[in-house]
Amino acid sequence: MLRFLSLCLLLIGVGLAQTNTIRVVAAADLQYALAEIARDFERQNPGTRVEINFGSTGKLYTQLMQGLPADIYFSADEVFPTLLEQAGRAEPGTVKLYAVGRMVIWASNSLVQQGLDPRKLGPRILLDQRITRVAVANPVHAPYGRAGVTLLERFGLLRQTQSVKWEEMTAGIPAYYDTGPLRRGKPSFEFVYGENISQTAQLALTSTNIGLIALSIARSEAMERAGVFWLAPLSSHLRLNQTYVIMRGQDRPAVRRFYDYIATPEAHRVLRKYGFLLPGEKLE
């Protein structure tokens, strides 16, 4: 009898632990902000744990469509959560804007010491003959990669030569865009692709010395210590309306509490700290 009661209590404990564990998958630009928000939430909700896996927005979408277990999905755009809802994979009516992302051109201190300061040069820094490799997120599945392409296009550094959907750009940017301005006067030029915006920042930090990355990553301690950045105007690239959604069948009380917490002043304070524009907020 005692063994039976012990087993029952154990099963109840396991069930409660699962109920109070919130499984989150999130775009890599949230690497620092969402981790901090989750820690604050856990402090305010003892016994509740938030597990976060970061990755490429598009790849996470594909995995969720294939059955990846998750409670909440944070995207770097508004397209993928809407597609999940339309496919019946997300709770109807839970797609919600949580922030607007910002793009930057980040350059290492070593480039700045050579007179290549993005704060002064803006996108023109990419025309310098010493810039032969630029880190960018893969536009096939990364919204920040798509925003990076449209940023370069806006400033005349790329010109589309072949109409193609983002998800079909598997041959690399130069296969679909004229990169003449970026190659002119240089011995070579290439884009170095990150699978997500966090990996792209790492490539800029360790390999290319320059990259098109998220402001939320550029504001991290490691990136601020190693370089500086130019902040792109919102109107200069594909708008990054970042949304999140509760996955189908996962609208449990703990999940809903975290979902609602994202819209609180405490969470907004953290998002603003990392450079996100908040819903309804306008630039000064």
Automatic annotation (TrEMBL):
One of its GO terms (biological process) is molybdate ion transport. The keyword Metal-binding applies. InterPro entries: AvModA-like_subst-bd, ModA, ModA/WtpA. Molybdate binds at residue 57. One of its GO terms (molecular function) is molybdate ion binding. Coiled coil: none annotated. The keyword DNA repair does not apply. Keywords: Metal-binding, Molybdenum, Signal. Residues 1-17 form the signal peptide. Pfam families: SBP_bac_11 (PF13531). It comes from the Bacteria. Belongs to the bacterial solute-binding protein ModA family. This is Molybdate-binding protein.
